[in-house]
């Protein structure tokens, strides 16, 4: 059992439920060197965010992506914009306060959002590939309706009665 759990953890399929996992996404975060900054990799990770590069971070539980300034309070910014976020609703910034039920809820939310994000990428790729001609041909095919299939018996009767 422990071996399969390790495989799942290493697969990148697990959402960022715990602070240490979110913090691990931040590499050389720009504001970490600023002694006066309130927005650091630690405050961002504690507020539920993972790093997307530069000064941006995203919440894996609601997919809110924000660009931060050094004097921003990540938790306050997340609360302002995350009224539909399961992480914000829990209001538990410390891992030690999370219950098993909380972890399950965050895990489900993270998985759903990850799938949602993947589906959106697929849709965007399809939209880019479609041209006016393709759309027109697709609409024409749909408007024609499904092709009617005939049985071998009906084909024989049509041949006899032209």
TrEMBL record:
Pfam family, any one: BIR
What are this entry's molecular-function GO terms? metal ion binding
Bias (Basic residues) occurs at 153-162
Q: What InterPro entries does its record include? A: Baculoviral_IAP, BIR_rpt
In terms of superkingdom, the source organism counts as: Eukaryota
- List, alphabetically, the SMART domains matched: BIR
SUPFAM superfamilies (UniProt xref): Inhibitor of apoptosis (IAP) repeat (SSF57924)
Instruction: Give start-end ranges for the coiled-coil region(s).
Output: none
Disordered as annotated region, ranges? 143-162
Keywords from the named record? Metal-binding, Zinc
Per its UniProt record, what PANTHER family does this chain match?
DETERIN (PTHR46771)
Supply the name of the protein: Uncharacterized protein
- Which species is this UniProt entry from? Caenorhabditis remanei (Caenorhabditis vulgaris)
């Amino acid at each position: 059992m422990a071996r399969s759990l390790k495989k799942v953890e290493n697969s990148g399929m697990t959402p960022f439920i715990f602070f240490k996992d979110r913090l691990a996404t931040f590499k050389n975060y720009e504001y970490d060197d600023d002694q006066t900054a309130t927005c650091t990799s630690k405050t961002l990770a504690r507020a539920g965010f993972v790093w997307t590069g530069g000064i941006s971070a995203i919440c894996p539980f609601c997919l809110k992506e924000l660009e931060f300034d050094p004097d921003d309070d990540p938790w306050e910014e997340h609360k302002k914009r995350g009224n539909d976020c399961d992480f914000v609703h829990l209001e538990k910034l410390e891992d030690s306060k999370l219950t098993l039920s909380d972890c399950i809820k965050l895990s489900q939310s993270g998985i759903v959002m990850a799938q949602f994000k993947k589906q959106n990428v697929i849709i965007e790729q399809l939209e880019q590939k479609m041209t006016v001609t393709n759309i027109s041909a697709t609409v024409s095919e749909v408007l024609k309706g499904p092709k009617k299939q005939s049985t071998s018996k009906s084909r024989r009767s049509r041949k006899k009665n032209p």
